[in-house]
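Worked Example 4.2. Read the sequence first, then its structure tokens.
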Amino acid sequence: MKRNITCPCGERITGQDEDDLVAKTQQHLKENHPGHDYSRDEILFMAY
């Protein structure tokens, strides 16, 4: 089941499943928002 999250910067990130979404979100944060790290639980809490 696809999961989505919208970063506070406005970028929408779509994952094929929870693991994919967490990996893509953490990669987006590392590349675009250094210093802003979210745990897996925090990312999944914000996902829809």
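Now turn to a second chain, presented in exactly the same format:
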Amino acid sequence: MELAQVRLLVGDFAACYRFYADVLGLKPQSGATEGPYEKFSPAVGSAGIALQDRDMMSAVLGDELGDGATGHRSLVVLRVDDLDAYCAQVTARGATLLYGPAAMTDRMRVAHLKDPEGNLVELQEWLLLRG
């Protein structure tokens, strides 16, 4: 078994597409800016984040899908090499940080923001273990 992606169900596909591509700088697979589906990948690693139009999935699953989630039900985590520099880049491109950059533990610094649908995104910088 292999994890292919984490998929977020979104109502405003175009706004979320712009956020993951233009603000976070992830590479879109096909360029489907209006959806109903797109996968985004970082420059390194095999993990991916995908967006799926919520209305399309509702047509497939009907009442099982339910209304939009209330409260936070997901957290997308991206590891970066230089948290301060990356935060400066994404805020210059329109992101608003909710928290950080700051130490979360003695081995990790983090910053948090939201995508246009309110999904939480955590940016992590892993620190070398201190001997």
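Notes for the reader: The chain has three helices and eight strands. The beta strands are 6-10, 27-28, 37-41, 49-53, 75-79, 97-105, 108-114, 120-126.
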